[in-house]
Each structure stands twice: as structure tokens, then as C-alpha cells.
Amino acid sequence: MDLPSISVITPSFNQGHFIRQTVESVLCQQYPKLDYTIIDGLSTDNTLSILETYKSQLRLIVEQDSGQTDAINKGLRSAQGEIVCWLNSDDYFLPGTLQAVGTYFAQHPSCLWLTGDCLIVDEEGTIIQQPIRYYKRLLRQLPVPVYLGLTNAVCQPATFWRRSIHAQLGYLDESLRYTMDYDWWLRLKSIQPPVVLARPLTAFRIHKDSKGGSEFSRQFEEDYAVLTKYTSNTLTRTAHRLHNTLINSIYRVLKKV
């Protein structure tokens, strides 16, 4: 079987505490056709000293950027792989992820994008928020317009797509700080619904400095604004708004805000 090449993009800035695990999780995949790029926005902690030790195994670009989305787009534009994804510098792949993804795309040439399950972990890598994970797994069993209309139930670090689609859809919206992924899923969905793999592919980390951990209220506001760009359906908008309100309230209880 002729596996496709896969490009992994990691936007990086001051995540020295986690970056080694992220990089190792990619390189230890031992995928035969890996193109790995890290875009660092001039980190001021120990990130760059760590990354220097991996320079022979990946492409490292260190320069000023205008934020995470800008860095991701730089990586996507320079990617050489047939399949692309981005993995943030505090998340990590689980063993066998790239082999599973590459095999699926090789066996299903008409598939444009796929997404899998992901663990939610804390700073130490301990699994947390299992009810939220199971809830999103349940949602992904519903029709795509339902679960993407209701909420962003797609796991960003567990999502891969064919690089060729950028010729049609362009790149991520750099005006978005929190929900550039949700915006991208809705654009991808307009062409083809995703294939959903049941297996966990990645670990998504929540910690005190992560945007998802500390700025979730602003994230929900931007999330709703993104939805309204793609649908004028009153029922969908109302359901999404009510769902955001409910989840926001639950997060406030969980995080004791």
C-alpha cells in the first residue's frame, strides 16, 4: 500500500514545559513519509533551546508572527505533504496515529478529511473531563449538520485533510483568535462531511495558560459569530446559542470561576 505523505504543523510560542513531548510524539510515530514543520514566534522561554536539538529531524522557522493562526497558515503554505494537520505545542499524538490516518486516506482516495477522538489531559498528562469527551463522541454520531450546527464537536488535533483542498478554500481566517478551527470545519463541510474515526488519535491539553482553559467565555462568543457566517437558520442559531450558554455555565462550575 502506497501511504500518502503527511505534513504536521506545530505553531509554537513559550511552551517550553510541553514542547518536547509534542515533538517526540510526532517523531516517534516513525511514519515513513513525514514532513514536520514548527513555526516559532520568537519564544522567550526555553522552547528554542529544546527545539534546536531536533533541527535535523524537522523544519524549524523562527520569526515574528501576528498570532497562532498566522503561524499555522505559514506552515500550511510551506507544507509538502498530501495530507496536512496542525498540532499545537502543548498537545501530542498518541502512538500509531499517523499510520492509522495515512492508511485510511490511502484506502479511501475520495476522502477529503477525517477526524478522530482525543483525550483531554491536564498539565501532567492526567486524563480529565471524561464526560465532555464522551459527550462530544456521542454528538459525532449524529448527522454532521446537526453536531456542527449545535457546537464544534470536532477534535482539532485529531483532524486531517488533503492539502489540495486549500486551492479551493484558501487558508485559515487570521482574524479569528479562538475558533479558526471551527470556521475551517464549516468550510470543509460545505464540500464533504468528515469521516469520523472512533479511535483516540491525540491528547488535547488544558492548563492555566491555554486559551481554552482561561478564556472560554470569549471563545464561545467568537464561536457563535463564526456560525452566523454560514447559516441564517433561526433554529440552528438559537440551538447553538442555548448550547453555548449551557456549556459556558458548566465550565464556570468546573473551573470555579
TrEMBL record:
It holds the Pfam family Glycos_transf_2. Residues 7-111 form the Glycosyltransferase 2-like domain. The keyword Secreted does not apply. SUPFAM superfamilies: Nucleotide-diphospho-sugar transferases. Keywords: Transferase. InterPro entries: Glyco_trans_2-like, Glycosyltransf_2, Nucleotide-diphossugar_trans. It comes from the Bacteria. This is Glycosyltransferase. It comes from Spirosoma montaniterrae.
